[in-house]
Amino acid sequence: MREAFGDSSGSEEEEEAITEDEARGGSGDRSKRLVPIWEAVVEIRGLWLCTDFLSPQQQSRLLSALRRGTYLLLPILTAEGWLGEGSNNQAVTDKSQLQKAMRFGNLPWWATELCNSVRDAVVLAEEAAGARLLPPDILWRQPLFDQLIANVYQPGEGICAHVDLMRFEDGIAIVSLESSCVMHFSNVEHEEGREDAEEDEERGKVGKVPVYLPPGSLVLLSGDARYSWKHEINRRPGFQFWEGKELNQKQRTSITLRKLCPVD
Ligand SMILES: O=C(O)CCC(=O)C(=O)O
Ligand SMILES: [Fe+2]
C-alpha cells in the first residue's frame, strides 16, 4: 500500500510513507502480519465488517490521492470514463462542490492498490480463522473490481434504502473515511406495517439492522447481503445513534468498489 498512499511527486510525504505491513505492525513476513479484525453481522448472511482496515495515516493518504485524482481528472472526466456530479447532478468543475466521482474500467493505481488490500484482508482472515468471507469465484476473479464510486456526504446527507443495481456482479466493498455513520439494512421482503409482518418476524426478516461504520472500516456484501437486503444511510438529525448516543456528524467520504457484469 506504500504507493497507494505515498505522494507520487516524491516530496516529504514520501518520507512519511509507510507500508501497509508496517501500519499493521507487521515485519514484512506475510505470515507474521496482523490479521485485520473482521466481524460477521449475524442477522445478514454475506455481510462482513472489518473495523481496522485502514490506519489513520492510510486513510489520509487515500483521501489525498482521491482528491488529487478527482480534481486533476475532472476536466477530462467524461472522456476518461470519470463522472463528476454536484448536488444538482450537473458536471462540476470546482472541486469543493464535488459530491460524487465514478470511474469504470481501468482504475487509477491507488484504487488498484486498494482492491489488492481488500483481497489481502480477506485472505489473511480466511487463512487465520478458516472462515469464508467471500465465495472463491468472487475472491479470485480478475479484476476483483472494475468500477469505483466515491461519495462525499455533508452532515445530514446520506443515501436512500436501495439494493445496488443488477448491472453489477455479486461482491461489493465499501470503504468509509472521515465521519463515522450507521448504515441500516432492511430485508427486501419485509415492509413495515404490512399485514403479514408478524410472519416476517418469525422468519427473522425483522426491522432494520444497524451497522456502525467507523472511518477506515471496510464492509463486504455478497449473496443475501447484496441481493436480499437494502442498505441506507439516514444522516438527518435524530437517525444516527450508536450505543445510545447520537453521532457527531462531519463530512463523510465513502469509496464503493464493484465489478460490472459482462455485456452479452
Ligand atoms: O456511502 C456509502 O457508504 C454507501 C454507498 C452506496 O451504497 C452506493 O454507492 O451504492
Ligand atoms: Fe449501495
Automatic annotation (TrEMBL):
Q: Where is the composition biased (Acidic residues)?
A: 10-20
- What is a single cellular component term in the Gene Ontology annotation? mitochondrial matrix
The Fe2OG dioxygenase domain extends over 144-261
Residues of the region (Disordered) are 1-30
Which one GO biological process term can you cite for this protein?
fatty acid metabolic process
* Composition bias, Basic and acidic residues: 21-30
Q: Which SUPFAM superfamilies match?
A: Clavaminate synthase-like (SSF51197)
Q: Which residues cross the membrane?
A: none
**Of which family is this protein a member?**
Belongs to the alkB family.
**Protein known as:** Fe2OG dioxygenase domain-containing protein
